[in-house]
Amino acid sequence: MLSLDKLQSTGKKATRDGFGAGLKAAGDKHDNVIMLTADLRGSMKSEDFINTYPDRFIQCGISEANMIGVAAGLATSGKIPMTTTFANFSTGRVYDQIRQSIAYSDKNVKICASHAGLTLGEDGATHQILEDIGMMRMLPGMTVINPCDYNQTKAAVQAIADYHGPVYLRFGRPSWPIFIPEDQEFVIGKALHLNEGADVSIFATGHLVWKAVEAARELEAEGISVDLINIHTIKPLDEAAVIASAKKTGAVVSCEEHNKYGGLGSAIAECLSKNAPTFQEYVATDDTFGESGKAEELLEKYGLGVKDIVAAAKRAIARK
Amino acid sequence: MADIKELERIASQVRRDIIRQVYLCQSGHPGGSLGNADLLTALYFEVMENDPSFNMEGKGEDIFLLSNGHISPVFYSVLAHRGYFPVKELATFRQINSRVQGHPTTHEGLPGIRISSGSLGQGPSVACGMALAKRMNGDDKTIFVLTGDGEQQEGQIWEAALFAPHNKLENLVLIIDDNGQQIDGPTEEVLRLGSFEDKYKAFGWDVMNMDGNNMAETVKVLKEAQAKRNGKPTCIVMKTEMGQGVDFMVGTHHWHGKAPSEEQTKIALAQLEETLGDF
Ligand SMILES: Cc1ncc(C[n+]2csc(CCOP(=O)(O)OP(=O)(O)O)c2C)c(N)n1
Ligand SMILES: [Mg+2]
What we know:
The complex is a heterodimer of chains A (320) and B (279).
Chain A: E1 12-14, H1 15-29, E2 33-37, H2 47-52, E3 57-59, H3 64-76, E4 80-86, H4 87-90, H5 95-103, E5 110-114, H6 132-137, E6 143-145, H7 150-162, E7 167-170, E8 175-177, E9 192-195, E10 200-204, H8 208-221, E11 226-230, E12 233-235, H9 239-249, E13 252-259, H10 264-275, E14 280-285, H11 295-301, H12 306-318
Parallel strand pairs in A: 2-3, 2-4, 4-5, 5-7, 6-7, 10-11, 10-13, 13-14
Antiparallel strand pairs in A: 1-8, 6-12, 9-11
Helix pairs in contact in A: 1-7, 3-5, 8-12, 9-10
Chain B: H1 4-25, H2 30-35, H3 37-47, E1 63-66, H4 72-82, H5 123-136, E2 143-148, H6 155-166, E3 172-178, E4 181-182, E5 185-186, H7 187-190, H8 196-203, E6 206-211, H9 215-227, E7 234-239, H10 262-270
Parallel strand pairs in B: 1-2, 2-3, 3-7, 6-7
Antiparallel strand pairs in B: 4-5
Helix pairs in contact in B: 1-3, 1-4, 1-10, 3-4, 3-9, 5-6
The structure holds thiamine diphosphate (TPP) and magnesium ion.
C-alpha cells in the first residue's frame, strides 16, 4: 500500500522518456511491435528501440492520417503498431481515421501521443491539446491512459503491448518528478491508491498527479485527511474505486491537464451522478486554449498548480 | 524599380531579429526562418500592396498566409518592421502573456495575422477560400501562401492542389520552401517528395522556379506570378537554404527547431549587419 511518505521524487525525467524505455521493453518481448512516426522521431525518445529494431521502425513523414491508416493495415496483419507524434496530431488531426479504421474496425493499434497539454510550453496553443482525452474517450472500445511519471509510462507501454485492443496513450514533454515505485505493477483500468484518507477524495491523472501529491501533503499538514487516487486509465474507469472513495469522503476533486469538459473530471462526474452523487470541484483548464510560456508558469496561470488543488479540496469539503 | 540593396539590408535585420528572438526564449525555429527572410522581406516591402494599419478582410490588398507556422520569427520581424506592431514586442516572443505566440495566431489579436497556423498542411486550403472570396468581391488582388517542403507531405495539401485549378484560382500563388530539410532529416530520406514541378503541373497549376535567397530574382518572379491572370493558380518552387545567412546553420536540419547558445548567438550576429536597429 502506497502512502504520501513513500511518494518521494527520486529524480526527474520526461514521461516521453518513459515511453521510449517502455517501447524498447515491449519490443524485446513482442517481435511484432512496430513503431511508426510522422517526422517526430527525435521527440519520442525512442532511439533505443529504433537502433535495436531498425526494420520495425516506419518513418511516415508529415502525414498523420496516412500513418493511422498504415497502422490499421499493419494491425490487420497481426502486427502491434504504435503510432507516435504529438498529442494534437495524434487525435484531432486524424479523428475520423482513428474512428473508422481503428476503433470501428477493432484494430489493435496503440496511439502513443507525446507533448499533451499545456506543459508542452513555448510552442503554444496550436500544439497544446486540451481536448484529446474527451475525443478519445468518446470512441467506443477505445482505452484511454494518461500515465503520471517516467516509471508509470514505461510500465503502461508494456501493458498496452500485452493487451489486445485500441489504446490512446497520452504523455508529455517536460522533465517531471519520478515518484511511482519502479516495481509498481500497472494494471489497465485499475486505479492506483496513493494515500488513504477520510476528508476529501482527490482523483488525478497525468502530470497533475505529482501536483496532487504535493497538495495532499499541504492539506495533511493542515489536518485534512486526503484519499488520493491516481486514475491512470480514464477509460475504462475504475468505477468501484471512484464510488468507494466518494462514499467514504463525500467530497471530490478531479485534477487533469485537460479541459474541464470531456476529460477525467467528466468521467468521474458521470460515474458519481449515477452511483453516488457527490459535490465535485474541477482542477482543469476552464474551457480555453493555452498559450506560449514555460510549463510551470502555464500550470500556474491556468489554475493547475498545487495551490489550486489545495483550494479546490477546501471548497469541496466546505460543500459537504 | 525595386531597390534590391535596400531590401537586402532589411533582410539582414530580419535575420538578426530571428536569432535574437529564438535566443532570448531559448526556443523556436531559426533554420527555416532564416531561409525565408528574403522572401518575406520581398513580399511585404516590395511586392505586395499591404496596409500595416491592418484589417482582417484585407479588401483591395494582397494577402500573405504563413502555413508553416513554425517559422514565425521571420514573419513577426517582417510584420513589426513593416509597422504592423511595435518592433520591441519581438522581445516577448514565446513568453507568457505575449501576443507574439510560438506559432502565429489570431487569438491574441496580433495585427498582420489572418489565420492561426502551426499544425501543418492547412494554409493552402484557407488561401483557396480567400482567393475565392476575392473573386466574389470583385477584388483583383493576389493571395500568397507559403508552405514548407516537408509540409507538402500532408494529404490536405493535395486536396487544395486539386481544388485551386478546378476553381481557376488565378489569383492564388502557392510558394513551396524547397530547402530539402525537415525535422527528422533531409526530405529525401524522411519521405521523398519527388518533383514538385511535375506534380503541380499534372494537377493543372502553372509552375515557376526561383532562388529564394537571391533578392533580385525573388522580387522578379514574385511580381510575375502576381501579375499573371490566365485561369490557373501558380506554384512557385522556391529553392532556399535552411539557416541561410549564418554559416554554421546553413543546409542542415539540425537548426530546424533549436535555439543557439550565447556563444553561438554572438558568432551568428557577427555575420548579420544591424541595419534598422535591434529590438
Ligand atoms: C500536422 C503537423 N504535424 C507535425 C508537426 C511538427 N512539425 C513542425 S515543423 C515540422 C517539419 C516541417 O518541415 P518543413 O515543412 O520542410 O519545414 P522546415 O523544417 O524546412 O522549416 C514538423 C514535422 C506539425 N507542426 N504539424
Ligand atoms: Mg523544409
